[in-house]
Design a protein that fits this description.
Oligomer: heterodimer
CATH class of the largest domain in chain A: Mainly Alpha
Structural class of chain A: alpha+beta
Number of strands of chain B: 38
Strand order of the largest sheet of chain A: 6-5-4-3-7
Shape of chain A: globular
Distance between the termini of chain B: 40 Å
CATH architecture of the largest domain in chain A: Orthogonal Bundle
Number of domains of chain A: 3
Strand content of chain B: 35-45%
Radius of gyration of chain B: 23 Å
Largest sheet of chain A: 5 strands, antiparallel
Order of helices and strands of chain A: HHHHHHHHEEHHEEEEEH
Helix content of chain A: 25-40%
Largest sheet of chain B: 5 strands, mixed
Helix content of chain B: under 10%
CATH topology of chain B: Methanol Dehydrogenase, Chain A
CATH superfamily of the largest domain in chain A: Cytochrome c-like domain
Distance between the termini of chain A: 21 Å
Number of helices of chain A: 11
Structural class of chain B: mainly beta
Shape of chain B: globular
Number of domains of chain B: 1
CATH superfamily of chain B: Quinoprotein alcohol dehydrogenase-like superfamily
CATH topology of the largest domain in chain A: Cytochrome Bc1 Complex, Chain D, domain 2
Radius of gyration of chain A: 22 Å
Largest interface: A-B, 31 and 40 residues
Strand content of chain A: 5-15%
Strand order of the largest sheet of chain B: 1-32-33-34-35
CATH class of chain B: Mainly Beta
Chain lengths: ~290, ~525
């Protein structure tokens, strides 16, 4: 009930909904009064609060969502009016406070870095995000249906990547990538796969749980194995080769161990995958990621 | 009861009394901490000794048998989040802390708890960087805890009962304690956290018996005090300079040597023109009065959060009275301890902010190192070349071992109004995507020359501190959950144990029943290792 109500409260839906949901709107005015102060942004639309929220955003959110909330390759572009996990200010407040289970979005103050936010500061951030939203929906540049065909067909993406339970395991599962990364970041990952190998961030903010670095080892009996790192420490490595075999190896038992930041993913140059086809694939990933 | 049983009972009672008596006698006096080297089985203060060396004279575990080390016990603290504690051990009892100001005492032989104390942390508290605590101090029959809401609490070492509880500052304006206090003479010395909130930093000393505050040294001087002129306008009021890592004590001069951290706001120098004393400064304070005798500032007018709170280590070598600090700004500093004069400052990690030195030999910031509105890449990043991870100095190898990180960040700056209790950074920093992947090391530095004798590369940067022992070993932990013993001379890993949780604590060593243990916290547990 609460979530349906909040969906109806979604400000950006007021215009398209105004005719068909007029009656429902009357109902929710009554509910909105009952929601209590905590469910409404006390600073909605206030430029001063948006400015304060911009500072807070820089400190607390920009690490993943980028300066200006345009997305940083790790967190989604928050200037998109359409958001996957939140439909109104109250839900956004909950998401910032409690995080999103199953994703790298942490609960306020729990990532062990920096200072947690007060309720007031969270509302200011929401006010800021609303002030930078682009109201028109992101132009779906490509043809998602064609992109799907390419993904599972000629472009060979699904040999290594899974989307919605179908595909290979050597690369990261891309089911959520359309919702969590910007279009530009996805395109860059296809054109320059080695550039954005997940690295360096604290564990909680890593893009993918694995690093996807390329590991080449020669075992004691002289066998060469090349694959992606599933995990690694100073003494052992867990890796998967292109045929999806998992190897659990002790480094001191290996003849050689080489780690490379050249991704095993082929570089998809425009002659291999045209801009148009790539747009279609991105449209497919975004359509899936928005679900 | 038969005669035999009576006899047995009597024997048990007598032996229990003897044990009890040995514990009852175990008042931890100032003299015992001063002479901690004479009781290597105990670990009486955060860094093991007043010099801050984190060196254990125990040598039962050594380079030839370290490969057979094994876990003796594991204590699950029940707390979540990062555990940064260094345990204390006194005559077979181990005292430590966990997240959320939990303190506990264990049988150091078995890990079985004796008491547990949970401080009532206010629910509306928002300390920077997790609800962490780095440990206790002990003096007499009390242990001392600094709390997240800026209280100092004395607990009965035998029961964990509160003896006294005093308020140092108002947590709602951003003050907190995460540091292990330092017990000196009859005083409990403690430095405040809160450099992220625009606090006015201080170091306090409390009477261990009563909790009465004996002195306070403000790390940001007020009007009329020397150093006040290094702050623009009213910026001193919110100048930061926290003091959140445990300092050291020099008995020869009766001085406490305690570092202060970053000025606030950390990423914006505009509005606080000047050197901003005593931010990022090593302070020499008279232990009885808190009066400053000298100071040395590592980073003037800091704009990169190079919060210089790393443990300063007293080194006496070649007739010289020295103090060394591996600083967050990427330089290893060696000072004359009697005068505070700089002897050398040598790079020990990736540094781009400075390429020259002033007449005194202090590194000088390049003009273009300041943060910009759009962001500007500088090395080291805001986490620093090192951070709160405790270093160690091994008098046998004469090497200083420190956890180091090579990471660059994009520093951005933007004006931000001060509001009490709210984060006050003056914008933010971001990992630089153009830079190399972050790398983490254990580095062995020759303090005399600044030369890096060896380095051990971790899979990823770690937050673990380092211990050295007379067994020719150094111990450290990694972000992947390993506890590692290395050969102190050459840096070769001799043994490791997978603890199943990342390390944010520093190791220490103790002995009980004549058997050496090495302990460290990882994940949410405390581990103790020894020979089979």
């Amino acid at each position: 009930m609460h979530s349906i109500l909040q969906t109806c409260l979604r400000p950006q839906l007021w215009l398209p909904m105004k005719a068909s949901l007029l009656i429902a709107s009357f109902t929710l005015i009554a509910y909105a009064t009952a929601l209590g102060a905590d469910d409404r942004n006390p600073y909605a639309g206030e430029p001063k609060a948006a400015k304060a929220g911009e500072f807070q955003f820089r400190i607390n959110c920009a690490l993943c969502h980028g300066l200006g909330a345009h997305g940083g390759g790790r967190g989604p572009d928050l200037t998109r009016a359409q958001k996957k996990h939140t439909h109104n200010d109250a839900e956004m407040f909950q998401v910032i406070s409690n995080g999103i289970p199953g994703t790298v979005m942490p609960a306020n103050g729990t990532n062990g870095q920096g200072v947690g936010m007060t309720d007031e500061e969270i509302w200011q951030i929401i006010t800021y995000i609303r002030s930078v939203e682009v109201k028109t929906p992101a132009n779906a540049a490509g043809n998602a249906d064609h992109g799907k065909q390419l993904f599972y067909g000629d472009a060979n993406c699904s040999l290594c990547h899974t989307v919605e339970g179908k595909g290979g395991r050597v690369g990261p599962d891309l089911s959520g990538v359309g919702g969590s990364r910007t279009r530009d970041a996805i395109i860059d990952s296809v054109r320059n796969p080695s550039r954005r190998l997940a690295w360096g961030l604290t564990e909680s903010t890593k893009e993918f749980p694995q690093q996807y670095e390329t590991i080449t080892v020669v075992t004691a009996d002289g066998k060469e194995i090349k694959g992606v790192a599933l995990n690694e420490d100073n003494f052992s490595v867990q890796m998967m080769d292109a045929s999806e075999l998992i190897y659990l190896l002790q480094k001191d038992k290996l003849r050689s161990f080489k780690k490379s930041r050249e991704s095993m993913m082929p570089i998809y140059k425009p002659d291999l995958l045209s801009d148009k086809d790539l747009d279609d694939i991105v449209a497919f990933l975004i359509s899936v990621g928005a679900k | 009861m038969t005669g035999r049983k009576v006899f047995t009972t009597l024997c048990i009672a007598i032996s229990a009394w003897v044990t009890f008596a040995s514990l009852a006698r175990a008042q931890v006096t100032f003299e015992r901490i001063l002479n901690s080297g004479k009781e290597p089985q105990n670990w009486l203060t955060y860094s093991g000794d007043y010099a801050g060396r984190r060196f254990s004279p125990l040598d039962q575990v050594n380079a030839s048998n370290a490969h057979s080390l094994t876990a003796k016990w594991v204590y699950q603290t029940g707390a979540t989040g990062k555990i940064e504690t260094t345990p204390l051990v006194v005559d077979g009892i181990l005292y430590a802390t966990a997240q959320d100001d939990r303190a506990f005492a264990l049988d150091a032989r078995t890990g079985r708890p004796i008491w547990m104390y949970q401080y009532p942390v206010p629910t509306d508290i928002r300390p920077c960087c997790g609800h962490v605590n780095r440990g206790l101090a002990i003096l007499g029959d009390k242990v001392f805890l600094g709390t997240l809401d800026a209280h100092v609490v004395a607990l009965d070492a035998k029961t964990g009962n509160v003896v006294w509880n005093v308020t140092a500052a108002d947590y709602r304006t951003g003050y907190s304690f995460t540091v292990a206090p330092l017990a000196v003479k009859n005083l409990v010395v403690i430095g405040v956290s809160g450099g992220e909130y625009g606090i006015r930093g201080f170091i306090d000393a409390y009477d261990a018996a009563t909790g009465e505050r004996k002195w306070r040294f403000y790390t940001v001087p007020g009007p009329g005090e020397p150093g006040h002129e290094t702050w623009e306008g009213d910026s001193w009021k919110v100048g930061g300079a926290p003091a959140w890592n445990t300092g050291t004590y020099d008995p020869a001069t009766n001085q406490i040597l305690w570092p202060a951290g970053n000025p606030a706001p950390s990423n914006r120098g505009e509005g606080r023109a000047g050197d901003n004393l005593y931010s990022n400064t090593l302070l020499a304070l008279n232990a009885d009065t808190g009066k400053m005798s000298w100071h040395f500032q590592f980073t003037r007018h800091d704009e990169h959060d190079w919060d210089a709170t790393q443990v300063p280590v007293i080194i006496d070598a070649g007739g010289k009275h020295l103090i060394a600090q591996a600083n967050r700004n990427g330089f290893f500093y060696l000072l004359d301890r009697s005068s505070g004069k700089l002897i050398s400052a040598k790079v020990y990690g990736k540094v781009t902010w400075s390429d020259s030195k002033d007449a005194e030999g202090r590194p000088v910031a390049k003009k273009d190192a300041s943060p910009t509105l759009e962001g500007h890449t500088v090395c080291p990043g805001a986490l620093g070349t090192t951070n709160f991870m405790a270093p160690t100095y091994d008098p046998q190898t004469s090497l200083f071992y420190v956890t180091a990180r090579d990471q660059c960040d994009i520093f951005s700056t933007a004006p931000q109004p001060y509001e009490a209790g709210h984060a006050y950074y003056g914008s933010a920093y971001f990992p630089s995507e153009e830079a190399e992947p972050y790398r983490g090391f254990l580095k062995a530095i020759d303090p005399a020359t600044g030369e890096i004798k060896w380095k051990f590369e971790h899979t990823s940067p770690t937050w673990s501190g380092v211990l050295s022992t007379a067994g020719g070993l150094v111990f450290t932990g990694d972000a992947e959950g390993n506890f590692i013993a290395l050969d102190a001379a050459a840096g070769k890993a001799l043994w490791h144990f997978q603890m199943g949780g990342a390390v944010y604590a520093a190791p220490m060593a103790y002995a009980v029943d004549g058997k050496e243990h090495v302990a460290i916290a990882a994940g949410s547990a405390l581990y103790s290792f020894g020979l089979p």
